[in-house]
Amino acid sequence: MDNIKNIELFSAYAGDIINHESFLRGKHIFSHGTITIYEHSINVAMLAFRIAEKQTIKHPALDIRCVVRAALLHDFFLYEWHIPGWRYVMHGWAHPSIAANKAREVFGITDKEYSCIRTHMWPWTFWRLPRCREGWIISWADKLVALKEAALCRGKRRKLYDPILST
Fold it and tell me: Scanning 42, 92, 109, 134, which has the fewest C-beta atoms within 10 Å of its C-beta?
């Protein structure tokens, strides 16, 4: 983040989510290598926020609040998916809908935020194409961050399973 104003704006959009006990459970679930879902989601939200801010020059109607909130919640599925079984096999296809439904239940997200979360795995979920600019920003931010995290953590894995999430 470039300046105090940007940090304050990001915090205003993200604060209630980042400090919520359900979101904090992501600190105990891995996303890529040694990166937790909590860390990954914040990294995606920060990149998406920076992209969205630049896009508002050409597209002033862009909803930056939606971008930040949906990016934070794009992986809000709250289960350990690295354990062999159906979750491991189906995770890539299933987790966007699971995360969107949980985000709606816990945070009462908007329809646009819901759509952005459900479509963030495009093109993996080729039948769910992002329908708005905000969705495209989140989808691309997620891919860029995931590539960076996977490259940085190649071959590294910590075991930090939450027994509640493993059942």
Answer: 92
Contact 137, 51 (CB under 8 A): yes
Question: Which domains occur in the chain, in start order?
Answer: 4-152 (1.10.3210)
Region of 84 please: left (phi>0), alpha (psi -120 to 50) or beta: beta
* C-alpha to C-alpha distance for 80 and 160, rounded to whole angstroms: 10
Distances in Å between the Cα of 120 and the Cα atoms of 22, 37, 57, 70, 100 are 21, 15, 23, 9, 10
* Residue 92 vs residues 23, 70, 149, 157: alpha-carbon distances, Å: 20, 17, 17, 19
